[in-house]
Input
Amino acid sequence: QLQLQESGPGLVRPSETLSLTCSVSGGSISTKGFYWGWVRQPPGKGLEWIGTIHFTGTTYFKLSLDSRVTISADTSKSQFFLKLSSVTAADTAVYYCARHAATLPFDPWGQGTLVTVSS
Amino acid sequence: DIQMTQSPSNVSASVGDRVTITCRASQNINYWLAWYQQKPGEAPKLLIYKASSLESGVPSRFSGSGSGTEFTLTISSLQPDDFATYYCQQYNNYWTFGQGTKVEIK
Output
């Protein structure tokens, strides 16, 4: 059974870079056809897609976050990563990772990890 | 970007009620639409994919319909476990979520 788990610092200072890891077990992130995405949810608010990496390494980002987001992967460790630079309080959110595909929605999801941006 | 608009934002309903949530896309997304249920402190759970296909293990009281730009999620007889927030999501062109609909106890 495929499982995803987010990890990373729970507190990031304003203007610094948020870095998260999603560890995938029960499957490989190199599996043909799949995408691996990041979604966030500010406290009390809705879901926002941030970006995605395809099994080929191609990346896709939400337009409004494009200049600040980097997504990469380490297939040998079955992990993919999110970096969000120049963070502000508005980036405080629960960050989720999830698998998806061209014809499949996000499923499964990790449990999520809360990242707070504060000095 | 494709915008997804859900209505209503909140629903107050009783156990046994039929509940319908609407999701509109700003452009044609064919049937590439999913519905998720989210409870406080939990990750979203996939209910419906490809507009009307029920995810394995999801109760049959949940159903989805629509294509193009207009979609609905229907809960035929609301159960206590169904009080939650529901999100639609398009995956026709990149990926966008609706703003959510909270189903509350009346």
Summary: The first strand of chain A starts at residue 3 and ends at 7. Chain A touches chain B at residues 37, 39, 46-49, 52, 60, 62-63, 96, 100, 102-107, 109-112 (CB under 8 Å). The two ends of chain A are 39 Å apart (CA to CA). Chain A has a mean pLDDT of 96.
